[in-house]
Design goal:
Belongs to the bacterial ribosomal protein bS21 family. The protein is mostly helical. It is built from 3 helices and no strands. It is flat, with a radius of gyration of 22 Å. The termini are far apart.
């Protein structure tokens, strides 16, 4: 996994790295590997994850087909206008 550091901005690079790791599921996998998981528990977890994915896919399909109402869209907060530039003469 690669992250570019631009203008020595380490904070931004760390944010990008964490977001990439979150998307890849690294944190979830690290949490699972902290303790031993029995094979039966693993099968149960994987089965429930598969069911959750299938339900989510079916829900999205039903929304697309118009069988279910779409969830309300989140309202973005309004941005404040930028402060005027002050020139000292």
């Amino acid at each position: 996994m690669h992250v570019l550091v631009r203008d020595n901005n380490i904070d931004q690079a760390l944010r990008v790295l964490k977001k990439k790791m979150q998307r890849e599921g690294v944190f979830r996998e690290m949490k699972q590997r902290r303790a031993y998981e029995k094979p039966s528990e693993r099968k149960t977890r994987e089965r429930s994850e598969a069911i959750r994915r299938a339900r989510k896919l079916a829900r999205k399909q039903a929304i697309r087909e118009g069988l279910l109402p779409a969830p309300p869209k989140k309202k973005l907060p309004e941005r404040k206008p930028p402060l005027p530039q002050v020139t000292v003469t």
